[in-house]
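Problem statement: downstream parser choked on a complex file, so we are re-checking the raw output for the zinc ion run. The parser issue turned out to be on our end (a line-ending mismatch), but while we're here, posting the original submission so the record is complete.
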Amino acid sequence: MSREDYEVVMGLEVHAELSTKTKIFCSCPTKFGAMPNTQTCPICMAMPGTLPVLNEKVVEYAVKAGLATNCEISRDSKNDRKNYFYPDLPKAYQISQYDKPLCIEGYVEIEKSNGEKKKIRLERIHIEEDAGKLNHDEFGGGSLVDLNRAGVPLIEIVSKPDLRSSEEVEQYLRKLKSILEYIEVSDCKMQEGSLRADVNVSVRKKGDEKLGTRTEMKNMNSFRSITRAIEYEVQRQIDVIEDGGKVEQETLRWDDVSGKTFSMRDKEDAQDYRYFPDPDLVAIKLSEKYIQNIKDNLPELPESRRTRYLEEFKLSEKDANLITSSKYLSDLFEKATTVCGNAKAVNNWIISDISRILNEKEMEPIDIPFTAEQLGELVKLIDKGTISSSIGKKVLTELFENPKNPEEIIKEKGWIQISDEGEIKKVVLKIIEENPQSVADYKGGKDKALGFLVGQAMKETKGKANPQMLNKMFIEELK
Ligand code: ZN
Ligand code: MN
């Protein structure tokens, strides 16, 4: 039997760090990248006798995420201890939620490349604390623990086993990421670990009802690795079965360099964690009014912005999809359009040059260094004829390097478009004199020669001459 005879069944557990200012059970800051162990206190370092106090913002953000993913919000929820030992977890238990998560039974709708829509059901979203981080071998030999991340709030979003291909997994993760960005509960920076996924993979023969044994790949944080890891793991499981073996339930580590998965440990079941209610924390009771208030203040979600862009700005479906896939791009688009009033032009800048530069620099939209106002000003300068669009491209490159007001950039660089008739005429006459052959060709009926002459004049003025005026003036002079 071959790969086609098998069905892949996957579910995801996605951890998103919430962008609250302080940790979940103490008032330490959560900012990423600080010196190790400078954002800690007796509570998140698990000193005996300390007591946790739940950060209310964490509940609010988790409820927001639940509502945005069509979940039922529990009116009565609680925190539990999940017991396990690991050097980055000083309490030897993680405060999480077990049988009463904050949000249950939602879904996220994805759209596949063939246009097909599919609902991926969510089992639950619960709140929990992050663990610290071990830095291996950084100081020659041993491992050092950094507890800055210990107690950073997380939501864990658990899907049902509804995913059937690596494409679906990628679409689902992208959709989830964009929703969390829109409701501003997480910055979702995957390279900083703010969004990471545990992927559960199993295979079964097509037509089988019973699920196959699953393996779990932990803490994946790039779309590329996730796709590669799934493809590898699916084939590995099929090979095991085809060879007459049995897939073992275990936790795997994906190694990006060798392109293989390695066994980390036998997969534990819920009972191994000896969950029990945390006696230091009170139950979380939410009123109807509290939930309704969050619902009423949810920001506009990507789906609705997409529809609005098709109608209000007449964007193509493809462009609207690309722009609304990221809240940052979408905000950039709307604000820049307000500044310049030219949605079409802003759209073109974003989907072509800005997207290209982001790709080249391997940057996320959130890292764009210039403001929407500056992009709007750039469009205005082109629309007014102050600069040509080819100079506009140079201004954009400059905005990525050294962002400031485009007007200042073109003044400093001397990039203002020449639209003075006298000056244009001087250049035109000079080029005509220097290129008798092309002039003769043009007069002999070869229209292409005109393009060459305009090109020469552009070269002469280093791209600053107004191209429409050049064209007109050449035609006039060569009559
Ligand atoms: Zn602390
Ligand atoms: Mn978890």
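For whoever reads this later: The CA atoms of residues 374 and 429 lie 37 Å apart.
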